[in-house]
Amino acid sequence: MRYVLLLRGINVGGRNKIVMAELRQVVADLGYDKVETYINSGNLFFDSTKNRGDIVAEFQTFFTERYPLGR
């Protein structure tokens, strides 16, 4: 199934910087397929056979540990 993850408040005004190429790579390394981003907006597209709840939990943990934004 194809998913979209919309990240809010990143790469705006020089704050909460996330490099999209790096984000694509680490998400692919987590086991997601056909990972794409749209410009520098934080919109992330990917394919996965995991269920929605597992994906949400994995990304919550991932962003808390890898990109502790707003702290």
Molecular structure report:
This protein is of the alpha+beta class and about 70 residues long. The chain has a single domain (about 1-65), classed as SP0830-like domains (Alpha-Beta Plaits, 2-Layer Sandwich). The protein is built from two helices and three strands. It has helices spanning about 20-30, 50-65, and strands spanning about 1-5, 35-40, 45. The protein has a three-stranded antiparallel sheet, with helices on one face. The model has no long low-confidence stretch (mean pLDDT about 90). This is Phosphopentomutase.
State the main characteristics.
71 residues, alpha+beta, Alpha-Beta Plaits, 2 helices, 3 strands, DUF1697
So, the CATH homologous superfamily?
SP0830-like domains
Q: What's the helix count? A: 2
What proportion of the residues form beta strands (DSSP E)? 15-25%
The protein's oligomeric status is single chain
Q: So what's the CATH class?
A: Alpha Beta
* Strand tally: 3
What distance lies between the first and last C-alpha atoms, to the nearest angstrom? 33 Å
Outline type: globular
The name of the CATH topology is Alpha-Beta Plaits
**In terms of per-residue confidence, which ranges show pLDDT below 50 for 5 or more consecutive residues?**
none
Q: Strands across the major sheet, in which order?
A: 1-3-2
Report the mean per-residue pLDDT as an integer.
Answer: 88
Total individual domains: 1
Structural class: alpha+beta
GO molecular function: phosphopentomutase activity
Keywords: Isomerase
Protein name: Phosphopentomutase
Organism: Streptococcus suis
